[in-house]
């Protein structure tokens, strides 16, 4: 369906820009020509599974769409993975080809205009569901990340459902901020603009502001927003905080925005409302790779801060007796790599509720629930997300299992311990007594390996074991 959409755009709007970037615009006709040439290379060399280890850019776009056209399983390789994790990805996925900026010994190099394309022989590939088109790997909480196998029908369903919901906004230019190896940006920053016929600005991650996997240059981000004037963005919660700072420092940098989707973690309603006071059209959504990345999304006209929006049309949500969310529908993954089909229903592991208007709210991970010494259950993610409103606090980790008072590890701006303490005291006044923070332990260790993954996600178990066990 995506391949036919590209062919249609190339035929009907041949000279309109499809992808833009540092090298200038590429039209729909030019993009389709690039994709056809790459698909031919993949087919002629009998490539079955292609691992793509590239920075954001036109070559990544071409490779992804060429895989769909040629029926090749595409395997994004996150650049923030360690070499050990990358080797595991290649081994576990049975990738028989690799597109990157550098070669590997013992792999055969092929002629390709979009990077260094290499091939190897794989005698007994790991079995996949017959309709698998993409294997996306989890964020790397272990040395052996899990591969999630996705079906084309699920990707098409999510893309079409989002297109229907967002088409009335009239978006004309999207800026890719997150790595394409992140399924959310891959789907919403490439497939969705393609479906809507929208221009996508694709820049190297450093041009957007990333400095490695866990640092971000706000001034570079402001410069990029100012220069490109995008109308839509996809952000994680921490980048929303930086977008808010950008709006405060340089209002002209964000004036063009019509829609900013935020996902990948819990967002406090107060932060959303604060962003909107500065004119930022920010809307929270929810999803997970196992469900094709997007399950629910707030949009203008159907929006309720404190929730992640209404589910995409065609999905069925069920909250079980333990308040855990289950999602059924065509978005369900084919299964984890090397395992049997997962069926049509996915246990998300997230604590959720659905209100009488159909809006979904996510409270936290079921496995992270803690019980205080007084028998009160609480989710640490709730408190940690509220702490995002504290300007001096960079990261907070809460622990209260079996304790009479919850303890917090605090990573704050250098030299701002007293400001962070005062801001957290003010936060406590807004929280119920059983989740309030007691003793504070100031440390920047919780922002470094081994306590965060290479893309900045908290390794909660490692933190708890080191600091509290």
TrEMBL record:
UniProt xrefs under InterPro entries: AMP-bd_C_sf, AMP-binding_CS, AMP-dep_synth/lig_dom, ANL_N_sf, ATP-dep_AMP-bd_enzyme
Domain AMP-dependent synthetase/ligase intervals: 10-337
Molecular function per GO: ligase activity, forming carbon-sulfur bonds
Coiled coil: none
Keywords from the named record: Ligase
Keyword Cytoplasm appears in the UniProt entry: no
One matching Pfam family: AMP-binding
Family to which this protein belongs: Belongs to the ATP-dependent AMP-binding enzyme family.
Name of this protein: Long-subunit acyl-CoA synthetase (AMP-forming)
Organism name: Mangrovibacter plantisponsor
